[in-house]
């Protein structure tokens, strides 16, 4: 259990609450060999020692033929086994038997919990049969009133399958989700010392690092070295005595590869000779295949976690795994492959895929979105661009729209505009949906360019079409634009109404990245209405998803800084640190892009109260609104220092100018309020000739007061949204009543509604 202190603390917390009446569910994920089974085994051992009954089960590939097999085996292992008379059921075929078996499982669990708390552990659920997954979808909630806890484990490398969807749904209902990461260097060193009795020397430490922090590979390496007497102790440290890998490592790798199709194993053995990383195009040439013919095998190897995608090639996940594959290729075969490579050497860089198959374009788009969600933005752009270069065919989503969204998020607006125009010129399947997607793209572009009026017009058109076509992800994107534009304009009730139309927070089948973007928008509106504490109800999902899902940080260059600001305002430095670490991780993974580095600098400057970092962000943000946000943060920091008033005023003036460029009237009003607190006043009106009475006689400020009061806000709430005093609101309201010859807020609301339908003049 080295290196698992945080995860083990969560397990102990689950065991402490198992006797309570609640839905206690913990989800454990990780690559093969990362330690999931050991965690479940240790949890079962501790639970038994504490007097908690334990039911353990495991799914396997062949067990899919047995409906509810893992659950049934778990209960039959207990001292009071379930009596399932399978042959006694009168109708052994069809769904009736499955329903009956599920009821028997639930009854057995209820009986077991009648005599005390119960821990149910189920491993390898990536291989579970559909009936087991369906039962696990409902049993935790049905038994929430019983003292039962669930510890469920699956491989993350298995792809987005039914087990993954089950975990997503259980997490939405409150389950704790743990992703077991590779061990860090300290944990690897501790494991080495545990196995060998002395610390590892430099050479052995380098060899141990080839396990990539995978506990199973590392344990097999250390045990094998010890068993085969390939370790000697000199100077109080252990040193390896041979170059070949121990048999234990080869056995562990063979078991892992035996789960794969024969063609996939053949591909891995051949490409391993090329080196730890390779170009799929050249691999196809080496094997005399086309890239599309290799696609199923490559997908399987990627899904199994044997291969991973790098910036321009595919790579064996662990060096030990790669070495084992190479060493087990017979020497004559290895020599023949080397001779072939010498005759036909690879040319680099080579594209990942280059052919005209629609499935390849769709796969590239899917991989680009996955890379984007993980913060590998350069990789996502490269894959999306490569998909664009292929004939578009009929794949969906269109590569051009995906690439245009990415370019917009990075504020590469000229290229994004050109790509949107190119996408608009395409003939796509489902023209109505296609038109809606183009409208939302143009809305995002207009908002990024500081044209909120045009953004609202395009987003409204896209929203109307997407709502009719039942496209929740597209509806959510349109609502996000409308909510942001309303928020910047100071129309908080309008923003809240748009938020109510966002299906991403409740609809099923919405991608996690879309859901997180939706929660970010909800948090911003909640913060504007009720402060930082009110925003945390929506933002918890975003903070907790880091660093696994970072998509919420990339759609807005100031998102990371805003999340840090909210976390600090609510006294939660741990979450502020998590955001800064995630933002810096994105910047580190994308050195060729300037935007992520500036966004990370902004977030770090806020957390550390660093004026130099905030100054850099205020100077280098390409998005005017983000630049204004950084300048405002810098002004606030200087304002807190009594001797930096002039610097504070200069920074706030810069923020005011940038907010004006982005037509962010609410934000500009907030900055004017900060300047007033420093004794500085800024005009924010345009002198025009007005009639002496009637709707047309109202000034811009009076119109703003009318809009908020007509929507039901009190004078205090209106003052808070306009960043002026309550007395000033009362003064403007008296002027409005006099000019309109009315006496109540009810009359004002009626007049405002009439004007919105039939504007004067």
From TrEMBL:
Domain of life per record: Bacteria
SUPFAM superfamilies recorded: C-terminal effector domain of the bipartite response regulators, P-loop containing nucleoside triphosphate hydrolases
Chain ranges of the HTH luxR-type domain: 691-756
GO molecular function: adenylate cyclase activity; ATP binding; DNA binding
Record key words, sorted: ATP-binding, Nucleotide-binding
A cellular-component GO term for this protein: cytoplasm
Pfam families (alphabetical): AAA_16, GerE
Record has Nucleotide-binding as a keyword: yes
InterPro entries (UniProt xref): AAA_16 (IPR041664), P-loop_NTPase (IPR027417), Sig_transdc_resp-reg_C-effctor (IPR016032), TPR-like_helical_dom_sf (IPR011990), Tscrpt_reg_LuxR_C (IPR000792), WH-like_DNA-bd_sf (IPR036388)
Gene Ontology biological process terms, A to Z: regulation of DNA-templated transcription
PANTHER family: TESTICULAR SOLUBLE ADENYLYL CYCLASE, TRANSCRIPTIONAL ACTIVATOR DOMAIN
Identification of the protein by name: Regulatory protein, luxR family
Organism this protein belongs to: Streptosporangium subroseum
Taxonomic lineage: Bacteria, Bacillati, Actinomycetota, Actinomycetes, Streptosporangiales
